Amino acid sequence: MTANIPAALTQLAEGGNHESLSPYLTGGGALFILLLLLWITTRFNRDR
């Protein structure tokens, strides 16, 4: 089991692209979440 750890770390360090991860989907999801957080922040930060 411990012999697989260096190989796994090497694969993680090299990037290990996975076919199910679309960069457009990941980036779009991150953008949506950040815009949602910005909208929520501006709703709660109104001066009254």
- Shape descriptor reads elongated
Largest sheet: none
If helices are DSSP runs of H or I spanning 4 or more residues, what is the number of helices? 2
> Averaging pLDDT over every residue, what do you get?
79
Helix content: 55-70%
Q: For the terminal residues, how far apart are their CA atoms?
A: 61 Å
- Poorly predicted runs of 5 or more residues: none
Computed over alpha carbons, the radius of gyration is 19 Å
Class inferred from helices and paired strands = mainly alpha
Total strands: the figure is 0
N-to-C SSE string, H for helix and E for strand: HH
How much strand content do the residues show?
under 5%
Protein name: LPXTG cell wall anchor domain-containing protein
Keywords: Membrane, Transmembrane, Transmembrane helix
Structural notes for this entry:
With about 50 residues, this protein is mostly helical. Helix content is about 65%, strand content about 0%. The protein is built from two helices and no strands. The chain has helices at about 5-15, 25-45. The radius of gyration is 19 Å and the shape is elongated. The model has no long low-confidence stretch (mean pLDDT about 80). It comes from Streptantibioticus rubrisoli. This is LPXTG cell wall anchor domain-containing protein. Keywords: Membrane, Transmembrane, Transmembrane helix.
